[in-house]
């Protein structure tokens, strides 16, 4: 059983899944090993993730390890319909995801994935965990745990844990070093710029490019925009991050000031209404707005709609809002993740590490979930190290090892100056 756009798209999805696999050697090695060991045999697993070629390879690795997997989309505009068709048709993995689905269908698909009665959930934004705790509490007693892929999801889960509302353990995959240092920075940086360029075909060189938020995603976006020759401004609310941005060579301004001179404004904060009416009122004609921070609330779209006297779509992923004074503001991808809605998401090579962490975290939950408290847990350090070791080996990179003398020195307090 599945709900996808068109089963006839499977052939194209099959080829693209295989293409992505070529750039995912760590996941491939783990899939081969776990395929022999079968540590997930018979376990029901539901994932609310972006249905992309990279996610397909994670799903196939989980299946190889013995799991019975069901997937739904974590964003209405991120589903690659050919990939969904290939997973359902070629591999028997039920997928409930259609690109462009309505909000009603989106939540219907989440509940279809939960009808699988999973014992482990995989989230990209905490929607499965949230739905289980709000409306599907009958599933809680059987849960071994969950994993969370994104900064936004981890924030939501930690809020639940702080209120005592979280009823089963969740591993914050986003916080693994082999995830956020690479996926968030290099993956988001490249894929966001890819989405902007595909959507607009506007030259970035010489433009004023504002990045809202200087977490790991914001760092990556700013770095890549600078590489394209843009004049990058960073806006922040955290003084340490603002200081770091300044010392990385970026101009740091309040968004109210930056909005008046921006050609591009990209959000990457995970917060709500970061770009608001007061900013729209100051923007210059033609300013391009995009979000790369997960949910479509970072840009206050209702406020922008209220200011507009006319709306049109000059390009597939661009909506132009004409204001009463004649200015035009351009919103990309309906305010959703521009790197997935207007492009193909992160490169496979960085998702290789992220999804290797997901896979090993699921195995850890299968083996130890009953022992863990209902809290947000870090990825075990040994998993992080194993992913890094396997990635280095796949890249043909060898590194030094400490000598016995060096290990002794680092563990002793008696040797010194």
Automatic annotation (TrEMBL):
Pathway: Amino-acid biosynthesis; L-homocysteine biosynthesis; L-homocysteine from S-adenosyl-L-homocysteine: step 1/1
Binding site for NAD(+): 150-152, 184, 213-220, 236, 292-294, 339, 346
Key words of the record: Cytoplasm, Hydrolase, NAD, One-carbon metabolism
Binding site for substrate: 52, 124, 149, 179, 183
UniProt name for this protein: Adenosylhomocysteinase
One Pfam match: AdoHcyase_NAD
Single GO term (MF): adenosylhomocysteinase activity
Cofactor(s) in the UniProt record: NAD(+)
Substrates-to-products reaction catalysed: S-adenosyl-L-homocysteine + H2O = L-homocysteine + adenosine
